[in-house]
Structure to design on (227 residues):
């Protein structure tokens, strides 16, 4: 496998459920990201992990909990979500360097909260 | 602050028409600039990039030139195809915050046969 892989591609959950999104990168990158893409809104950066340490947390509600056990895997744990959390969640990875590295994205996990 | 501004869409063109999607940026440092494309039902893919002033990025017939004097990175293609229908995102990374990609709001392109 190559690139950035996200699972599941589609997820429907109730507001009281607990679920997780998974992301795996096979590019040897040292940074991983979660973005939220909602209809008619700009892409929102949620979390950034660099060398497995969280370096960015953009005021994301605590019902979203990221986990980065190693440089190749990233999770987003979901708990007690609201309908407005329905969106496409995109994972990305990059190799951080002095000049900045481009991000490589997965195909996204489409989340629907009922 | 640092930001990216794109022209609002949708942009609707006929096949073989000339495409321009405007992008301007505001940055406190010296950014690298990118265009990403998102086809229906997919994630974002890097289309092209430029890392310093006057650089021209190109790929799949698309081009964009890093213009520092006008803080712009407009995307162009001489002859669009139906398969180019997608959402296009302009973005920047700052050297002092090299992990943080800042996106524009995206421009939807629809190419009709």
């Amino acid at each position: 496998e190559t690139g950035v892989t996200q699972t599941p591609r589609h997820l429907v959950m109730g507001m009281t459920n607990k679920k997780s999104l998974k992301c795996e990168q096979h590019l040897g990158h040292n940074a991983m990201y979660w973005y939220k893409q909602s209809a008619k809104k700009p892409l929102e950066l949620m979390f950034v992990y660099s060398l497995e340490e969280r370096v960015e947390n953009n005021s994301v509600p605590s019902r979203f909990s990221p986990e980065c056990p190693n440089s190749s895997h990233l999770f987003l744990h979901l708990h007690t979500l609201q309908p407005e959390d329905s969106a496409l969640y995109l994972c990305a990875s990059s190799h951080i360097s002095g000049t900045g590295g481009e991000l490589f994205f997965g195909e996204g996990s489409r989340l629907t909260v009922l | 602050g640092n930001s990216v501004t794109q022209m609002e869409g949708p942009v609707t063109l006929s096949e073989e028409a000339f495409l321009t999607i405007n992008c301007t940026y505001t940055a406190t440092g010296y950014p690298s600039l990118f265009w990403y494309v998102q086809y229906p039902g997919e994630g974002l893919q890097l289309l092209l990039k430029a890392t310093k002033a006057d650089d021209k990025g190109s790929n799949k017939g698309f081009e964009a030139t890093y213009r520092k004097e006008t803080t712009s990175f407009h995307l162009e293609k001489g002859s669009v195809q139906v398969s180019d229908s997608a959402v296009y995102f302009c973005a920047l990374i700052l050297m002092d915050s090299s992990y943080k990609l800042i996106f524009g709001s995206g421009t939807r392109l629809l190419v009709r046969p």
User: Anything to note?
Assistant: The radius of gyration of chain A is 13 Å. Chain A touches chain B through 28 residues (CB under 8 Å).
